[in-house]
Amino acid sequence: MPRRQTNHPLLRALGAHIRNVRLDRRMSLTDLADASGVTKGALSSIENGRVNMTITTCVKIAVGLGLRVEDMIPGGLEVSPRPPPS
């Protein structure tokens, strides 16, 4: 289940990427909900960057869109681990 999170750039970028892929595939929210098993309301919140989805939800959406999980990260978005504390 998605968890509430507000105004984080990564969540907005990820949501916009999901929406763009969905629209490129000419899928409605209903189509993606049916294909992924994620509710339309949750998908809308994710696409609008309002929630921090779980990895399980990310995998379901990837499957519904026909993507590999690694393709869920938008191109040009740098995601790197934090350096270990010294």
From TrEMBL:
Annotated GO CC locations: cytosol
Coiled coil location: none
The HTH cro/C1-type domain, residue ranges: 18-72
Keywords of this entry: DNA-binding
SMART domains: HTH_XRE (SM00530)
InterPro entries: Cro/C1-type_HTH, Lambda_DNA-bd_dom_sf, TransReg_Diox_bact_type
GO molecular function, one term: DNA-binding transcription factor activity
PANTHER family: HTH-TYPE TRANSCRIPTIONAL REGULATOR, METHYLPHOSPHONATE SYNTHASE
Record's protein name: XRE family transcriptional regulator
Organism: Polyangium fumosum
Organism phylogeny: Bacteria, Pseudomonadati, Myxococcota, Polyangia, Polyangiales
